[in-house]
Amino acid sequence: MAQEVRGVIAPGKDEPVRIETIVVPDPGPGEAVVRVQACGVCHTDLHYKQGGINDDFPFLLGHEAAGVVESVGDDVTDVAPGDFVILNWRAVCGNCRACLRGRPWYCFATHNAKQKMTLTDGTELSPALGIGAFAEKTLVAAGQCTKVDPAVAPQVAGLLGCGVMAGIGAAINTGNVGRGDSVAVIGCGGVGDAAIAGSRLAGAARIIAVDIDDRKLETARSMGATHTVNSRTTDPVEAIRELTGGFGADVVIEAVGRPETYRQAFYARDLAGTVVLVGVPTPDMKIELPLLDVFGRGGALKSSWYGDCLPSRDFPMLIDLHLQGRLDLGAFVTETIQLDEVEKAFERMHQGDVLRSVVVL
Ligand SMILES: NC(=O)c1ccc[n+]([C@@H]2O[C@H](COP(=O)([O-])OP(=O)(O)OC[C@H]3O[C@@H](n4cnc5c(N)ncnc54)[C@H](O)[C@@H]3O)[C@@H](O)[C@H]2O)c1
Ligand SMILES: [Zn+2]
Ligand SMILES: [Zn+2]
Predict the structure, then answer these.
(1) What structural domains does the chain harbor?
(2) CB atoms < 10 A from the CB of 346, how many?
(3) Which residues are near ligand 1 (CB < 6 Å)?
């Protein structure tokens, strides 16, 4: 029997979001229905609402979520009703060329639930990032559910489902930050701050935070930045070099997604250093660099998709570290809100007032 629940939809380009009744089908093969307990408000939800991702309106928004599995399809064995889980964007296939080479975090054939959630009139919904968790319940592929220690608060756990994992993973998975490294992070929103927290966790000796907003730099310090640079008033490349003996940082993480900040990252790293692009550019953006500099500076220019995370490996580990007091995920939660406050949360996000607003259900 399909169920009816409340959920937040984006009805059309730039229209305000609203609460609607959502029809959630029973889970079919490979699927699970999850009772959502918390879901963070992410910039990507706002992009969906603005029509910046695609035109498949109406969207069921929300994708940084944790909750309890309510029911699973016949063949599902990895999770069971009652399990406390964090949702991820993409269930790994196990069979594509990346998975078969033992690199499932790159899986090129990830999937979501096959069945569609709908409005009561039968209109099919497009769930944000294949999740759609600003809703009391949501239907996902069972492989999108990762069991973690239920001792963690849901509003904290859910954050690993997107931006915080992307940032931590950009540092520890993509950037391979290690003990004693110098790291610079350009852009200190939720993702950049998570990259700072990840770098601290990995043992980086020097962590330089760069932003154009002093409020963000203050938070970055509390996340583990040892030095801060306001790039509105100070040349960040010069400043990062000065703070690293004149050489540049071993790893520079670009968490804005713009040509000018990528260029800063490129020139602010040491010889043979690594640039990690975790910020997402728009289709119109271009960058030109002297090819001799690309060659002569050596090292690695990498992109970080979802922090190159493998949820089954990374989510339980990071939750355990949080519960042991070694990773303060709670610091990312600025406020908890109700389902009908998502529109307001978008405004606060736009003004740069919050790291994360989290809907609790
Ligand atoms: N790669 C992934 O898988 C992945 C996942 C989630 C988010 N992201 C991307 O990461 C980026 C950051 O996301 P967020 O949630 O932290 O966003 P955010 O808006 O919270 O933070 C962006 C930060 O960059 C700062 N900033 C803006 N322009 C700057 C400039 N010129 N120089 C220095 N700092 C500048 C802002 O002041 C802000 O602090 C976005 O592009 C987002 O789409 C990527
Ligand atoms: Zn695969
Ligand atoms: Zn997100």
Answers:
(1) 3-161+328-360 (3.90.180.10), 167-304 (3.40.50.720)
(2) 20
(3) 43, 162-163, 166, 186-192, 210-213, 216, 231, 255-258, 261, 278-280, 304-306
